[in-house]
Specification:
The complex is a heterodimer of chains A (172) and B (250). Chain A is built from ten helices and no strands. Chain B folds into two domains: 78 residues, Arc Repressor Mutant, subunit A; 145 residues, Phosphorylase Kinase, domain 1, CATH 3.30.200. A seven-stranded antiparallel β-sheet of chain B has the order 1-2-3-4-7-6-5, with helices on both faces. The chains are: A mainly alpha (172), B alpha+beta (250).
Amino acid sequence: MPDARFEELSLPLFDQLYNFAHWLTQDRSEAEDLVQETYAKALRGFAGFQAGTNFRAWIFRILRNTFLTSRTGLKFAGQEDVEVDSIASVDPSPEATLIGKADRKVVREALQELPVSFREILLLCDVEDMAYDEIAQVLAIPIGTVMSRVHRARKALRSKLIEGVKGGSHGV
Amino acid sequence: MACESFSEKLDAYVDGELPAAQEKELATHLRGCAPCAADALERVQMKQSVADAGKYYEPSAEFRKKIEGSVRTRSKHGSFWGWQVVALPAALVLIISLSMGFLVSREKAKRDRVYSELADLHVATLASATPVDVVSTDRHTVKPWFEGKLPFTFNLPELAGSDFSLVGGRVTYLQQTPGAQLIYRIRKHEISVFIVQDRGADAASWASDPLSLLSFTFETWSKNGLRYFVVGDTSAADIDALSRLLRDAG
């Protein structure tokens, strides 16, 4: 009986889980392994999932924990949030208008270059459109930490985007 | 000093995660502070860029089949035919109603994002030292100015006999697509009119009546393949009156 419910809950999330996995691993076959293992673990543990609670947060959390213990994930284990306080604080400079014009490729490259902890939180917040309390469940951190990490992640992304847009315009 | 404390909250603000009281306080601040309004606008744009660029990797068809197969095959084990007959219709109703609710809330979230982007653009434009790129009260000057700058043309209304006056216009970007922004004035209130190409699929999800959000009034409609948004902090009656003039002209 719970299996039919698992199918209904988990299959609609397949594309999102895959996209997230590929962003984390940066590799198609590793992303597939990660998603497959996530589904296997989630199915095995589904009896422990409490109906009425957030299934999406639950399965994203499984995927993310599986990633952290994978070979690629372990490489990032030591990679903590980079210090971004040294980055100049936001000011309405001519650069600011460049950000609105950054094309998808520049944004993608900037995201790829971010440390995993920043990349994953922006994906959950902006791509998956998760609320802070949902992100807190996925990442197993307090909401206050979600708030400050989103702030720092955007600051880091902003400086990468400015680099990217400037670099791109010089290159052409 | 004050801006410093607000700027730390801007990310939570654009994510809709600030408690109501703080959100209101920040919104009031943004209306009077050009640098913070520009900062907020930039963050909204960046959030939108990440949302667009981040939906990038798609699973292969084989892999999709593999996962679907593994989940579906297992579902059949241990499930009881008699139970399925009873539960399936109920489950279908549940899925349909859940996904409808989900779709509606996604649409609403998307709409709210557009409205807050519009409010930010409106505020940032008014706060700017050069709010308009073509300064003219004459629609026959403003309209041709846009030619060659936008992939579409539009008509502007004759305002003689109304309380509205045209201040000017500029090229803007809404949801990363180019559009026209016109500034009108009525009794010292400025109103922004945004004109962008309509994406047909969105048509049904927009309310046709004036709507108040974030202390602004919005009105929107689609005509001849263009979507119009009217945004301002004046009364709904004013917004509606200007919308009527534009509708008749377009």
